[in-house]
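Entry, Tuesday afternoon. Goal for today is a structural model of the target with zinc ion bound, before we commit to ordering more compound. Inputs were pasted exactly as handed over by J.K., no edits. I checked the ligand SMILES twice against the vendor sheet because last time a stereocentre got dropped in transcription.
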Amino acid sequence: MFVKKVEKPLKISGLEALLRRISANHPSREKIIEDLSMCRAGFYGEQSLEYFLNQLPQNEFRIFHNLRFETPTIFQIDFFLLSKKFILILEVKNMVGKLEFDEGFGQLIQIKSSGETKIYNDPVLQASGHKLNLEKMLLSSNLNFPPITYLVVMTKQNSLITVKSQNQNYIKKIIRSNKLLNKITELSLQHSKELITEKELKKITKFLLKSNQEREQNLLEDYGIEQSDLIMGVICDQCSKTPMKRICGRWLCLNCKFISYDSHLSTLNDYILLIENKITNNSFRRLTRIESSYTSNRLLKKMGLNSEGDKRHRVYHLPPRGFGMGGDKND
Ligand SMILES: [Zn+2]
């Protein structure tokens, strides 16, 4: 069963927000689009594994998607499967073209159909590094845990994989996603003995969730964008034009005449992703381009947010993962 389910990474939502909020000719736009498409490809690959992982015996495996630790070594694990017999780390790669794993040089060479060649760090080496870091982390926390093994899962079915190595132990670490279930069955047979108790399993689960640390993102800084570069105003859900106008307690799009009651929430979500998760009435007014301080204040109050401070200095706390993004369930 999934303990930490597959969820869209905040970075993807953040980059999408950024593209909505910068002008069409902003110099950083191209780079953001490129990075977003890379992040999405990675996430699609991970999402495609969900189908296979859901077929595993529910009681046997606890599955975690996307764990990130700062131990202080920073490392991130795509999927973590915990059973009483063994632990399995999955490093997922969603890459197209000809892919050559080169053990000797510790590299992965990608040749795309356009002829473009890219060199990456060897994912097998990466995954074995994660295993060592994990062992260190679990040992130093005095947790009893079963042996850790790892696999690199290639999710693009039409890529051509070759491996430059004579080492069977190395070659066996690389699989395609359609072989994942077979491989896990094989591992289950090799590790047939239960080595930890239910209580110890729960302890590890708790420890992992507690130690998981999401990367603090500051996309404006990463892409050299000033807050003043961001386009303010409520975006129309229908035609994506800005700004909608607040009239008689509703939002009206002057472009397509779409009317909504809560379009300020998605604008606040952009604010949370790009700036911070607290807001004053003044900043809210600037953000939503509501002219009257009274109207903006009333709308903020109606949202029932926690707040601190008085009057003009009152600060409202916004949900860190946004409104209605389905992210709070895991927190
Ligand atoms: Zn509109």
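The chain has two domains: 2-211, 232-330.
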